[in-house]
Fold these 4 entries.
Entry 1:
Amino acid sequence: MREKPEHQTNVTPQKIIEDLWAARATQALVTGIELDVFTHISAGKHTVKEIARAAKASDDGMERLLDALVGLGYLNKKKNRYGLKPIAEKFLISGKDSYIGDFTYETRLTWDGWSRLTEVIRSGRPVERVDSEESGREFFPKLVSAIFPLSFS
């Protein structure tokens, strides 16, 4: 049943926009983790140049990434210096017992499959079969090593 027109006046496309942009946020976070941005900041690197040098990345690209991570709520920025928000301090510094950055491996392992979901739904066939000993032997150890730390966070 359709809602009456007067109940539809407060409806916005915000949730749709956020959901469609979610993959970009995921990629920014994964890249920050893969480049050890959070660990570099924890080690005393706070400017774009310092962090970019430590991560072996370009200054321009790093600045864009850092600003995206500020917008996502993982970093703060004051006078062109970046710092860690509590969530990044607790979970995204490599070497800490609470580190869950290895979960990015799961994201990388399954990214292609999720990007082809429409095709999978239409065909009814998985992107990659991992139900044989041969294929499972490669896939599942990677998956387990990526998700196991979540049991302790």
Note: The domain at 1-94 is CATH 1.10.10.10 (Arc Repressor Mutant, subunit A).
Entry 2:
Amino acid sequence: MTDAPDARRPAEQVASRGATSHSAASPEDKGPEAAAREALLRFGGVDAKLTRITVGLINQTWRVDTADGPFVLQRVNPIFGPAVHRDIEAITARLAECGVLTPRLVRTMDGALCAETAHGVYRLMTYIDGEVVSELTSPARVASMARMVARFHAALDGFAHTFAFTRPGPHDTPRHLAFLEATLRECAEHPQFGRVRPVAAAILAHGRELPALGQLPRRIIHGDLKITNLMFRHGTDDALAILDLDTMAHDTLAAEMGDALRSWCNPAGESEERAELDMALYRAAVDAYVDESGPLLRDEERAALPAGLETIALELASRFCADALRESYFGWDATRFTTRTEHNLVRARSQLSLAASVRGRLRDTAD
């Protein structure tokens, strides 16, 4: 990895010696890369090669190669306010003290944690040399991910932090189901409404039968532990780092691990209509997480893991289904699908199928 002790050097040192700054060409003329290059000027006038990284649905991301080494630049989705960077800075400092590797923010020339421009909020981060995968079939790899997440949670146990940026109920399942109902009322004129409505009805019916999670402690969580938000050492099953920390919040481990397990233990992924829980992957993840967590994980939190998985799978199904009509939030794969609606509808069916699989295999189990 490239995260040497001086990786967070000031922006003045990030700039290539003798580099010529790219002109601030209008992004309307040259697109997202021109806006990204303009934002880079705030971090020291870097003359750099930008390579788009297409993994991820929310933020626009580039690898930035400079004479001083690689960095990562992101245009932050507007759903995250600039204040989120104060949270990232504080919590990643704590994680670094505890040996949990994450990207660290590189400050602008004037010492800011991000660059607010006319075209959006951009941040520059240290680069970690590792491998991101989009599919999991190895129980050993899943177990390594679970152990890293347990160390993440342990590092933040008891860490007092008041979030500068919060989002309303990111894992508030009743709110997401209510939003889906509202979407059906408000988007009835959508040309694909007839295809979306029966899927929405099935999601809402399942939602009425979700198991209760009970009163669980709220902790600092990552908030989006999908497969692509963990990085591995090249060519190994060893988890190396945790990425994309915008979604950190106070919430339950049932929500956190439910979201992780629905991503890790479904080999079909989100873009295939039929999804099932892979029990070998599930057992590997849960056993490793419980073992690494030790006394941190309370009995009631461990018992809530199956219900958390079912709940979060259904919650995500409802979000995809709503966006099939609203077409305003999730990115989509134009190489496989003709419209955003089509891709989101497949995703909604996939997560509904996963929730049904979890219900059939894990309901009334303790792990």
Note: Strands lie at 49-53, 60-66, 69-76, 105-106, 115-117, 120-126, 219-221, 230-232, 239-242, 249-251.
Entry 3:
Amino acid sequence: PPPAPAVAAAVSRGIDGGDLEDAIGAAITAAKAGAERGHWVAGADIAARIAWAVELVRGLPERQALDRVCDLVGTSVASQESVPAAFAVLALAEGEPWRACLLAANLGGDCDTIGAIAGAVAGAVSGASALPDEALVTVRSVNGLDLEPLAKSLLALRAGSTAQ
């Protein structure tokens, strides 16, 4: 089954005020639910791999943890690798969005997807104020993105409102 329910649930839990462990737990629960409802395809169980990847890096020095992610979890475009890798990075970064993005960027492989997932969940848990101002300025200027209106619109939709 696709990993979207896991990522969406983790972000949603963070937006609702949940902490890092709440978000990871929500991801695992949603991945299990998705596996029961989704179309079965051969491959590793996302829920089990998220839980395993998070435990695999817990308490390890950063370099050793990142080596384990690369060597054991994997960083390819396969969702059975990239999604658990993102949650391992998220756990290693202790929910700090900028650190999660930097750690993911240094993994190699599908690091943009891993960073996007880890950064989104960490950002939902910690809030935009946890990101360095200079990083936000750089993202806005380099990419020409004005993300605040989009974020406000998405939050309004989530709240059941169509207000812009």
Note: The chain is about 70% helix and 0% strand.
Entry 4:
Amino acid sequence: MASKRAFTSILSRSLRNPISNHPLSTPPLYKSLSPRPSPQARYPLLHPQRRWDSTSASPPKAYTFDEIKHLISNPSPSRILIDVREPHELHSTGRIPTAYNLPIASSPDALFLPAADFEDKFDFAKPSADTEVVFYCKAGVRSRTAARMAKMAGWEKVGEYGAVGWSGWGRGGGRDGG
């Protein structure tokens, strides 16, 4: 019996391919042809799915030159004009009268600051959420960004004198507010 068991053991070992039993051997062909899960399927937390809601906040109101002239000739605490250019730009070119300066490029978190910190940093009271804020800059890029940020920060009434901004104010005959 022992010789029969030894014979079958030797026979089965000799029939095995020594290369396929090696730990570094390549996998059989059928395994490499099987579909592999995508990286998103293997690691779902590394690839979060994003959904965009197209029914969110309405776009900011676009103001014209005449509407801005009316706004500064009839100031109201429920509507303020904010220049989002940098202070050095205001010193070299001027600003629209009654406008406050809020440099959005150097202070992108400005609209998210607490009221006390906002007033300390910008020397005017942070507008309440029910105040209409109207932004402008030199040509419209920064004012559009500021308007979007205001919407994200909770303001519902947001306006933008952005299509022409300060450049259009000067061309339209608007005077410098200092």
Note: The longest strand covers residues 79-83.
